[in-house]
Amino acid sequence: MADEDAGGSEDAGRDDAFERVVSRVRDRIDPDAEERATLEQVAAALANRAADAATDRCPDADVLRVGSTARDTWISGDRDIDVFVRFPTELDRETLEEYGLEVGHATLPEGHEEYAEHPYVKGEFDGFDVDVVPCFRVADATKIRSAVDRTPFHTQYLEARLDDDLASEVRLTKGFLKGIGVYGSNLRTRGFSGYLTELLVCEYGGFRPFLEATADWQPPVRLDPEEHGRATFDDPLVVIDPTDPERNVAAVLSPDNVARLQHYARDFLADPRHELFDPDAWEPDPLSAADLRDHLERRETTPVALRFEAPDLVDDQLYPQLRKSLAGITSGLEDRGFDVMRAATFAAADAVVLVELAVAQRPGVERHDGPPVHVRSHAEGFFEAYADDPDAYGPFVDGDRYVVERDREFTTARAFLESDRLFDVGLGAHVETALEDDYDLLAGEELTELLASEALAVELARYFEPRP
I want to staple 313 with a disulfide (CB 3.0 to 4.6 A). Which of 202, 261, 298, 317 is the partner? Predict the structure, then answer.
């Protein structure tokens, strides 16, 4: 009985701590009345300007606010307003883009053009970051003509399901996801989008039920809010879009970030604390040269880094190319016998592909297994290919097959990474161009050169002092 009482007391203590932390976080992240009024005033002014400009060009156009500030799921301090200008489907795409940019510039005279699936205008208005995005007003989300056509349906779906209490739970959940570094569906972060977060909170009924559920997830996890039950996806988390049954809302989410969420959900439930809502609490100090040397001495590995000028691309274009290049380079090293222990890529003004090698030097010869001797046609061809090669040992028989030992193309990782064979491994197109222009190869203590950039020094701290 005493043990049961102790267990109950512990649970009660955690519950109290949970509520205290949540209450404190709400005080910080919930917008106050003045902040809400300011946002509504600015958003209304923007919507009116966009509507006037749109209907001047197309009388059937209309304007819709979308995103978290339209659904009251925004966190205090967020300064984003998304204005969608909807045009009838009778317009051709070229005209929609033309009208969309004209409306965008009329709404945001100081704005600039950016391009997603089609161009739109981005700018600042009264201290708010604003996107003015054109789309088609389609009948339902399965008939979209571009990805952005789906967004208004997300807003309509959630507005019908989010009351004040659930909206507050969404803000809390967003604060937690931001705090642990897994919020944002951009291709650099590959985390939880706002829409995905809102769907998950609706599915589980609040922040705490969400944490309790995710702590026990067994990926792959499939959620289908509207029970569409049709499409299949090969992702760790599948959330079927209620407005489009052929789409997984969590498609961008990386397995790492699913696992991170699970770790910190369990951590917070066991030990509730405010720090898990504060991304700055987890930002490491830049790595010092002395600390880097200590890590290298302790690990006794050989890290090599390719440093080059970062291609002039937005993150959503740059990071997929960096990851593709990292995969190609690590595969090229592994294929040549240079065992990769861990690898990473990151960018500031310079981009870096960092590969830590357990084996950085190999013997002058390598074993090459041929076919079994009894597979006559292949075996004879293998034997004839090497029989007169003065540089090969063999062919000889080992077990039931022919084997040769031949000269290794590269005996060091540096030699491979400095050769033209680097460009055979499958690099991102812009990364390949940047490497063709110039790159530095840094190995071992030469990595201290990267510390001249504070941003890269922080990334190296993340690498050498990792956390979940």
Answer: 317
